[in-house]
Design goal:
The complex is a heterodimer of chains A (338) and B (400).
Chain A (H helix, E strand, L loop, with lengths): L2 H5 L2 H32 L6 H20 L6 E2 H37 L3 H20 L1 H7 L7 H4 L14 E2 L2 E5 L2 E4 H23 L1 H11 L1 H6 L4 H26 L7 H16 L4 H22 L4 H15 L15
Parallel strand pairs in A: 1-2
Antiparallel strand pairs in A: 3-4
Chain B lengths: L9 H20 L2 H21 L11 H24 L8 H17 L5 H23 L4 H21 L33 E8 L2 E11 L9 H22 L2 H11 L1 H6 L4 H24 L13 H14 L4 H17 L7 H15 L8 H17 L7
Helix pairs in contact in B: 3-7, 3-10, 3-11, 3-12, 4-5, 4-6, 4-10, 5-10, 8-10, 11-12
Classes of the chains: A mainly alpha (338), B mainly alpha (400).
């Protein structure tokens, strides 16, 4: 244990905190998908991590499509047009996967009124299948004879390996806080995530669709009697979760730059942790939970060593649940005001 | 209710399900003596399976005895997890943590730091795992049910990270040379002496024509590195003992308390059931059985454990085994455990595609039979009643 690594100098403290905030923002965006679905259906959407993972691939492919596979790196300004295109693609792909998931793995069960646990199993199965399908993309391309044409996209023979670095964005320092240089990438990630959260929050609170979501979360049967189309609401919930996961995937690729078919798993677990920590079913809770988790685990990694990062995250979760058994903001989607 | 089940494609599957329920019910109504006889025959068959090596079900790419050992280990795990999920209704997504605790306790006691014989280490491993279960359960079982899932998931991951990073537990290289169970009638002395009390030949199949293969014999009660079958027999015996214990507990006051807690916690508490204590008991019992399975796994054929054997993914598989088999029914749990281990091994020739197929199969199975393959009798009765009500109300009935 080395408290000095964190608290020894103000510079270190600031740098670990900002690093944590950046990751926390990404967690928060993914956590939205878990929290929305849980709020409406009381289901743990275990396959949401794959929704995110498909988004990261959409970003990688967009960059390969535009820039080829060169290892050159760009400044944020140069990459911005491609990045915007990638954002749109990732949101489309993730939303598509999320809707497919709802249609194939959830709706048949919901119609039967099956127990909640079996939906978890269905989601676990779908999660395996989606991740494996991505890991086998070179085979699928081979079946239709496009393996060579698409070589850059499907990396024949090593589709399961780590992706090359198609999104090489060179962060540029903007300003200093106590010796730590905040880069444009960091700033963009945090600001974009916050904007997205505010937009979604307002959507759920103010629009007609949002009212439908809240009504269904509060009491599905009464909502249905009042004319809310519950199937639509569920679809919309998955759609929003997918869009946010796509945005998170773009931000993640800006920061990390590479992905593989199992990239979603641990991030998904963390995002779910963040959702629970903030109070599951609560949008603002997801934001707070994500940021707290990101910062705390970064501090923990500094003090205990980076191999204990995940342990810090989970121990923190247990501690918070002991003090506040329904999460930090502990309010459900249905009870949101306005 | 929009009749998904009456869609043309769903019909044969649904009929298959109804037929299966019918078979199970018929078996349940047979006289006790007949049921016992069938059971004894099935058990004998299951014991003999790795020697009979029937065609079709025998795995070609990988040692069949080893696969059967894995199936038995998963069945034992599913049986333990069934107590937690099926009886007490607690969703545990970190069961692999208990499995790992049991395995590492045996590893540390018999190889890494001390050199105890296996059968001394086994009860200690069970006790340690049980204690872990209580320590984890005491603070977390008070949080709301749904949150338990993520807390236990975190626990499973914490255990893996701990064994990976703590030198005292072998760190990332794991623990090797874990003691095998003690052989009776002399241990194996490579290369020729097989040890054991006596040797049993196995069958070899040419198509569907059997012949006795005297070159590959299995030594009875000899635990070496070559043959997995004695380990399988040992584990199967443990499984049967646990099965008896499970039956006794389920039909006792404890079992009824679990059931009441699962169905309605508040009502149970009002009726004087100390629900927290019973939930903790279920958690500890489940943990102990998981630890036991881990202990047998650690001292198995290879005698080696490493952190990579305890990935979080396996926890999901265990939960899938219990639910797919039919949560709350011990036979269902066993069936689920066996299937979850066996299917990917059997279809190894599909090599890279097997996980994909497995995932699709899991989703399909969940949608086809939400109640599991072998649901408890009460669940079957409820489903049938619902079916009857729906028929009485007619096709137009709304069922949101």
């Amino acid at each position: 244990m080395d408290l000095g690594a964190l608290f020894g100098s103000f510079d270190n403290f600031v740098s670990f905190t900002i690093g944590g905030l950046v990751f926390g923002a990404i967690y928060a965006l993914i956590a939205l998908g878990y929290t929305m679905v849980y709020g409406v259906l009381q289901l743990i959407n275990f396959a949401h991590s794959e929704v995110f993972m498909y988004g990261t691939f959409a970003v990688a492919w967009t960059f390969i499509f535009v820039h080829g596979t060169s290892d050159a790196s760009w400044s944020l300004g140069e990459a911005l047009p491609t990045l915007l295109l990638a954002l749109v693609m990732a949101m489309l792909v993730s939303a598509g996967v999320a809707l497919l998931l709802e249609r194939a793995a959830y709706r048949p069960l919901l119609k039967k009124g099956a127990p909640k646990l079996i939906a978890l199993i269905s989601a676990i199965g779908a999660s395996f299948a989606l991740a494996e399908a991505m890991g086998l993309r070179d085979r699928f391309a081979g079946w239709v004879g496009l393996e060579d044409d698409l070589a850059n996209y499907v990396s024949p023979g090593k589709a399961r390996d780590v992706y090359s670095n198609p999104v090489g964005i060179d962060p540029k320092g903007l300003f200093d806080i106590g010796g730590y240089t905040v880069t444009d990438v960091d700033l963009l990630i945090i600001v974009a995530a916050l904007l997205m959260m505010v937009a979604l929050d307002q959507f759920v609170r103010r629009t007609r669709f949002g009212r439908g979501i809240r009504a269904t979360a509060q009491d599905p049967e009464s909502a249905a009697l009042m004319g809310v189309n519950s199937t639509r609401v569920v679809q919309l919930t998955f759609l929003i979760g997918g869009l946010m996961a796509g945005a998170a995937a773009t931000l993640y690729m800006m920061k990390i730059g590479s992905t593989r078919q199992n990239a979603g798993f641990i991030l998904g677990v963390k995002a779910f942790t963040a959702a629970v920590m903030g109070g599951i079913g609560n949008l603002r809770g997801a934001l707070l939970g994500g940021l707290v988790l990101g910062v705390m685990e970064n501090w923990g990694a500094a003090v205990f060593g980076s191999q204990w990062r995940d342990v810090v995250a989970f121990v923190l979760l247990v501690l918070i649940l002991l003090v506040r058994p329904s999460g930090l903001l502990g309010e459900s989607l249905g009870k949101a005001r306005a | 209710m929009s009749q998904t089940s009456s869609a043309p494609a769903g019909r044969p599957l649904r009929r298959l399900g109804l037929w299966w329920d019918h078979v199970v019910d018929r078996f349940g109504r047979l006289p006790m003596a007949v049921k016992l006889l069938v059971l004894v025959l099935v058990v004998a068959l299951v014991y003999a399976l790795p020697l009979l090596r029937p065609p079709v079900i025998t795995t070609q790419e990988i040692d069949f005895g080893g696969v059967m050992f894995g199936c038995a280990a998963y069945a034992l795990i599913a049986l333990g997890l069934n107590i937690v999920i099926g009886y007490a209704g607690l969703l545990d997504l970190g069961y692999i943590g208990f499995y790992a605790t049991g395995a590492y306790t045996v590893g540390v006691l018999t190889s890494f730091h001390w050199h105890w014989p296996f059968f001394f280490a086994l009860p200690v491993a069970i006790a340690v795992t049980m204690l872990t279960g209580v320590l984890l359960g005491a603070p977390t079982l008070r949080v709301r049910g749904d949150y338990l899932a993520i807390v236990t998931l975190g626990f499973g991951e914490i255990i893996r990270i701990c064994v990976k990073n703590i030198e005292w537990l072998g760190a990332s290289s794991g623990i090797k040379d874990i003691a095998h169970p003690n052989s009776i009638g002399g241990g194996p002395k490579p290369p020729f002496e097989k040890g054991g009390l006596f040797s049993i030949p196995r069958l070899e199949w040419d198509g569907f024509v059997p012949s006795v293969d005297r070159d590959h014999t299995t030594a009875f009660l000899s635990f070496g590195a070559v043959d997995a079958v004695p380990y399988y027999w040992l584990l199967l015996t443990a499984l049967i003992l646990v099965l008896f214990a499970d039956r006794l507990i389920k039909s006792s006051r404890v079992g009824r308390a679990w059931e009441a807690t699962r169905e309605d916690e508040d009502a149970a508490e009002l009726m004087g059931v100390p629900t927290f204590r019973y939930k903790l008991l279920a958690f500890a019992m489940g943990a102990a059985i998981g630890g036991m399975s881990g202990a047998f796994y650690a001292s198995g054929q290879s005698g080696y454990v490493s952190p990579d054997s305890f990935l979080l993914l396996y926890s999901m598989l265990f939960v899938a085994a219990v639910i797919v088999g039919g949560a709350g029914n011990r036979w269902g749990a066993i069936l689920g455990g066996v299937l979850v281990y066996y299917l990917p091994e059997r279809f190894r020739e599909f090599a890279d595609y097997r996980i994909l197929v497995f995932g699709l199969a899991l989703t399909t199975l969940a949608i086809w039979r939400p109640q599991g393959l072998l649901p408890p009798r009460r669940a079957r009765r409820v489903l049938r009643a619902e079916e009857e009500i729906r028929e009485l109300e007619g096709e137009g009935a709304v069922n949101v």
